[in-house]
Predict the structure.
Amino acid sequence: MAIFDQKTKEKIASVTKSAAASAGDVLEMAKDKITTVTKNAAEGAGNRIEITKLNAKISMENKKIEGLKYQLGELFWQKAAEGRELDADAMSFVYQIQEIQSQINAYQQEIADIKAAAQVEAPEETDANGSDDNEDSEESGGKDKTGEDSGEEGGGKEAAPEKTCAQCGAALSPGGKFCIQCGAAVTGDKICANCGAKADPAGKFCPSCGAPLA
């Protein structure tokens, strides 16, 4: 026994066909939409690239204009430098340039003065140091750096022999009153260690007992 009669089957078929048609329409519309969006995106990208190229060309042309303006300014400046009369507007720029150039010249002169002053001060410092050295030499009475008399100022005299202690023979400190080794008092004579007699400071043997002097 058939579940659906003929009319029902036809209705179901009609509905199914309509649904399929609607689904197809939706898919077609979606395809068209995607195509349109893709096309617009491609056109937009192409337009941006083209606009970038055109902007680059415009920039290059502007640079050419700037160069021509510079040459134009140089032409007018040359005319002004040659003494040719320009209109009031052009001469106002000329006057401004001249004032700025004058200020630059003043700065350059200040630099030159500073350098010249520095070159003058350096020799003066050298001369001052040399004078101080000469004064120190004169005040020292002809003594060299070691404090000994030089040959010219000292008349060629040899340095005095080093003083030694009469008791132990150790070197005595200049101006000292006692020997730093044995503590003996510093006197003008040597003392014989054997007999205690006084001896000549320049002597090598005791005049009393003949013992060697330290």
